[in-house]
Design brief:
The chain has 188 residues and is mainly α. It is built from ten helices and eight strands. Helix content is 54%, strand content 10%.
Length: 188
């Protein structure tokens, strides 16, 4: 079976920091889109939805994007839900938090992972997601220590890591006058 065929049969976990790059254009958004579109659809957990929506609101609040640009991004996000590109799913939260407590105990001192980083990895483990897609170095380190199959590999990660790339530009060409702002768009 080809790698592409294998990807279409699995349920990936896509970190919200990668998902946001589908709705806010950055120099690294194309690489993020290429990774995500390898899957016919991606599960969206309540935690990720909160992070994506909150990040869009924070970007507008910081005037990195306008209110109109935020509205279009939210519309595109809703459209992806309606079209099934994103599929809402609810994990077993009791299991997620049991895994998260173990991950914290086993890996936080060495990785300095934050609780939200731990939750991303815990959801992926509890849901048996494959692969785990992130550009966050702490999540990636915890996931690798748990022997999860991670994407992207290091050479791709540097292209999609918003904290390394800096400038955010609104994704849609439909809104004239998309303004550039400073700072990454790390979800949260």
């Amino acid at each position: 079976m080809s790698e592409q065929a294998a990807l279409t049969r699995t349920s990936a976990y896509v970190d919200s920091g990668v998902l946001i790059k589908l709705y806010v254009r950055e120099p690294n958004s194309a690489a993020a889109a290429q990774l995500v579109t390898a899957f016919p659809s991606v599960k969206l957990y309540p935690f990720q939805e909160l992070e994506v929506r909150n990040t869009l609101r924070a970007l507008a609040g910081r005037t990195i994007i306008t209110a109109a640009q935020r509205a279009v991004a939210e519309h595109e996000f809703e459209r992806d839900l309606i079209l099934g590109r994103l599929r809402r799913a609810v994990p077993d939260w009791r299991q997620v938090f049991q895994v998260a407590l173990r991950l914290s105990m086993d890996h936080t001192a060495a990785t300095l992972a934050r609780s939200l980083d731990i939750l991303h990895v815990a959801i992926a483990i509890a849901e048996q997601a494959d692969p785990f897609i992130t550009a966050d170095r702490r999540q990636l380190e915890v996931a690798r220590r748990e022997v999860l199959r991670c994407m992207p590999k290091a050479e791709v990660r540097s292209r999609i890591d918003g904290t390394e790339c800096g400038t955010a530009v609104f994704r849609s060409e439909r809104v004239p006058g998309a303004e550039r702002g400073n700072g990454g768009t790390e979800a949260g």
